[in-house]
From TrEMBL:
This is Citryl-CoA lyase. It comes from Pseudoduganella rivuli. Keywords: Lyase. GO terms for molecular function: acyltransferase activity, acyl groups converted into alkyl on transfer; lyase activity. SUPFAM superfamilies: Citrate synthase. The keyword Lyase applies.
């Protein structure tokens, strides 16, 4: 086995200084220049550290407040959400923890209520900014979905295709984020929500609010998509653990509602 430890891992995010007697152990680990164990663990919160990892700088007070609001709002989408439902199904079968979280990520990754929809809604903010006429034109003539392996959207990204009116939690989240981010996309969305909903024909969804806030925080679409996937995992985790204890016999989604049930016709 070679004793040559000169191979260099190239990353702008992380830098390690090895222990003098053990090249496999770090004496100092720096994230974007900050000493993680010497400085950050006693002074930085988890949300601040996530932002530092993503953007390479510390968030200001407004950004920290907005990120904390988003973290609470996204932490548990609830059992009816496909990502949590998938994790619960994994838990009910006694599958390993990793299987439950992978199921949650897979089911919550799409463009119909999932993390991909946040990215797509942010693309609209990037293309149209806070120009109401541009938004109305985009809603009337949606952009083609890219890359091609993603299916073409059947609704406006950031809006609820099944909604009758804007849900109360969505409005509450919008108000809370507007207080932390009084200027920019979030505030514009709050002022123009009714007109945008009229153009879309459906109400604003949580992902639309999340997209506006993450746009204001300077995240790219890819960064926002990844962060959304991450922030939604706690709820999936705890519901999976609960269902693992209860077992499959108490799984709440066993019944299938068939519109044309042949069994009933024969009975």
């Amino acid at each position: 086995m070679s004793d040559n430890f000169s191979e260099v891992i190239s990353t702008a995010i992380w830098h390690e200084q090895a222990e003098p007697d053990n090249p496999f152990a770090a004496a100092v680990a720096r994230c974007h220049g900050y000493d993680v164990y010497g400085q950050l663990i006693a002074k930085a919160g988890y949300i601040e550290y996530l932002y530092l990892l993503l953007k390479g700088e510390r968030p200001d007070a407004a950004a920290t407040s907005a990120l904390n609001i988003l973290a609470v709002a996204l932490a548990n989408p609830g059992p009816r959400d496909p990502s949590v439902h998938a994790a619960m199904a994994a838990g009910a079968t006694g599958a390993p923890a990793a299987s439950a979280l992978m199921a949650a990520i897979a089911a919550g990754a799409g463009s119909a209520g999932g993390a991909r929809e946040v990215l797509l809604a942010m693309q609209t903010f990037s293309d149209c900014g806070t120009d109401l006429a541009a938004w109305q034109a985009r809603i009337a003539a949606p952009a083609e979905t890219r890359p091609k392996y993603w299916p073409q959207l059947e609704h406006v990204p950031g809006f609820d295709p099944h909604g009758v009116r804007c849900a109360t939690p969505v409005l509450q989240l919008l108000v809370a984020l507007q207080s932390a981010l009084p200027n920019g996309s979030t505030a514009w969305l709050a002022r123009n929500r009714a007109l945008l909903e009229q153009a879309a024909g459906i109400p604003l969804a949580q992902n639309g609010v999340v997209a506006a806030a993450l746009t204001d925080l300077g995240l790219s679409g890819d960064e926002a998509e990844m962060l959304t996937l991450l922030l939604r995992l706690p709820g999936a985790a705890v519901h999976s653990l609960e269902q693992k204890q209860r077992g499959y016999r108490q799984f709440p989604f066993l019944e299938l509602a068939l519109e044309n049930d042949p069994g009933k016709a024969q009975a």
